[in-house]
Amino acid sequence: MGTAITFKRPDGKDASGYLANAARGNAPGVVVIQEWWGLSDQIKGLCDRFALAGFDALAPDLYKGKVVPYHDTDAAGKEMNSLDFMDATTQTVRGATQYLSRNGAKVGLTGFCLGGAVTIIGSVHVPELAAGVVFYGIPPEQAAKPADVKIPLQAHFANKDDWCTPELVNGFEKAMKAAGKSLELFRYDAEHAFVNEQRQAVHDREAAELAWGRATEFFRKHLG
């Protein structure tokens, strides 16, 4: 359904990604950020699904063509740890946001795992964004303080998550509330990466569909 595109970062460098356009011409935009595996078919599928829901969706390729197989967590961790999160967010993600907003459309940001953390960083450092939806990822506070978040956020977390733990989530929620920030936070009795239907060991269809409905409703409310 979608297509591979190249777009410009604010620094003038080229970045690539996967774009799926909605049927209507003046659709709002959603930038979709990958898990630590890379720009997988599953993330492209979510872009297609956003397009069917009425959004132009662009997933920038933060690993520049590298996609790690699902069984190889060591390689995924290595790729994630070698990613410059600030450059990826303030340049590549911002470039994708600017690409989608070029016709005056409002743009939101969403991401999963690694992409969830990038979504929170983007909510602080990408001024063109109107809203964000976070899936099971929180960055370290030095990358993005809850007090500095500039847009309404919705967040989805798993109770059986040993990476983005319930304790971490509670701390994030508390800090957002203390700073008076707009946050809708949902917890699911599921495992990390429960939205990824390609990973049967962790996929939870009921939780994933509930989260999807909430996310699209939130974006319709804030992006139009």
UniProtKB/TrEMBL annotation:
Species classification: Bacteria, Pseudomonadati, Pseudomonadota, Alphaproteobacteria, Hyphomicrobiales
Keywords: Hydrolase
One MF annotation (Gene Ontology) recorded for this entry: hydrolase activity
Record organism: Bradyrhizobium rifense
Name of the molecule in the record: Dienelactone hydrolase family protein
Pfam families linked: DLH (PF01738)
Keyword Hydrolase annotated: yes
UniProt KW Hydrolase keyword: yes
PANTHER family cross-referenced by the UniProt entry: ALPHA_BETA-HYDROLASES SUPERFAMILY PROTEIN, CARBOXYMETHYLENEBUTENOLIDASE-RELATED
Ranges for domain Dienelactone hydrolase: 17-222
Extent of the signal sequence: none
